Amino acid sequence: MSGFRRMAERWRGAGFATVLLVILIAVNLLLNPSRFHPSAWGALIGLAAPLIGAALASAPVILAGRGGIDISVGPLMGFVNAIVIQLLFLKLGISSPLVIVPAALLIGAIVGAANGFLATVVRIQPIVATLGTYLILTGMTLTILPAPIGPAPVWLKAMAGPWSALPLALIFLFWWLVRQTPYYDQLMAVGSDDRAAYTAGVPVTKVRFIAYVMTGILAACAGLMLTALIGSADPNIGPTYTLIAIAAVALGGVSLAGGRGGLLGAAIGAIDIFLLQSVLTAFNVSTYVLQIAYGVILVVAVIMTALQERLSGRKG
Amino acid sequence: MADRATLSVRSLVIAPGASPVTQAIAPGEIVGLAGLDGHGQERFLKVLAGLERPAAGDVTIEARAITSFRKAVASGIAYLPRDRRSTGIFPTQSVLDNFAVSTLSRDMRFGLLSFAARRRRYEAYREKLSIVAPRPDASITTLSGGNQQKVLLARALALEPAILLLNDPTRGVDVATRHVLYDVFRGLAADGMALVILSSEIEEILLLCHRVLVFREQQVAAEITGNEMKSDTVIAAMFGRAA
User: Fold this and answer.
1) Which CATH architecture has domain B1-76+161-243?
2) Record's Gene Ontology CC terms (chain A) (predicted)?
């Protein structure tokens, strides 16, 4: 019973996003049944995976509160994409997942640690600190890889096809484990109120720093999923994920003030945006209009979430 | 119950120019801190908690120096903050999470958290402090002010401290709850815990404490014990008049 309640509680946070999800799935099924046929799920999830990954990656630092945000998630995805294909696969001839995956995660952890150091130890405002990293990573990616190049290892491409659910499943397993450790409670406490967390004996700086490292690692995962999807390296795609991922996180009911929401909500927000894209593309709507639609949905979602909170607050 | 310990304050100067304070707070003792707002009693309490640094002197507990909040917690000091809305509760978290945040690692089983163990620990304190919270997994903001305060007290007690520092613990708490808290405080002292209570209400201090330190201009203006503990004496000391 209490497990059910916990579940219900968790879904309520992402309330509007979940309703939108159901509607969008229904509309998509009506418009384009063959695309959403179970046999096409592998490719479909692979197509949505980089955005879901980017949203999941953006979530931990946002949960940690006090303006925590990492806008370098997109460029980090692009950087991982470039390193994996250009440096590891093409130059060094390494194709083994046992080297590529740890190398990518290590890059993510290092960039995340750098962001975390700037934002939590040096105490530069997170948006400025990660803007710096954003520019550095974008520039480094273009230096390594001035123009798109291919291909990608076969196993990696399979991660956007039949095996596309595997990386996401692993991320959720990882997050489930995090939830079973004291760290998760400390993260939510810090995000909820950092001064109260300090007086409760929570090591605030350390908790935030780890959140940045987790974001970096998850962004590297998203970078691998991006590489799998495009089956090549492209220096220009990564950075485009940053803002849309933050939109997905907000849509999924994660408060940008911190301490409220979770990775499930972020994923639902990302799926919403993906499905919306799919609906509008089915209507042959131009990509410019697509941007307008994202914006409108985001604003509506944030208003709906605020209203919902105010109403439930009055009831309690 | 944790080990009993004496909190020693040696030549402590709260603010430059004030005269030093030397005190020993023994197990089982309830010491009150009184004074007009801003006359140093809150700063004194925070120095005891390691949250603020004194101008001179030191605070030790069984020969361990309290120089930071972390050291204070590690040495068996628990601190209950004054303003529970801004520095106490986590409004987005549940009652249970609010209770457990200081003692998370105690529920570890085989490297992972046991939520059942956390629940059991909470239930013990819920009973002890008669917390009225129908659902431990509901948001803490659904509780009344008094019950939120009890959850915070439960959080501090879960650390099983030797010394409990309370910063105006009954502020904004209803009368019935106050008396529950008073009984709890007396019970803790009887079990050997040392309590330091800062209160803005003189009646409360007179009712609870064995002795009271009255602060005026960042120093202890009077230490009042026994038969002298009357509100006239305390008020006189607060305003710097001889009683």
Assistant:
1) 3-Layer(aba) Sandwich (3.40)
2) plasma membrane
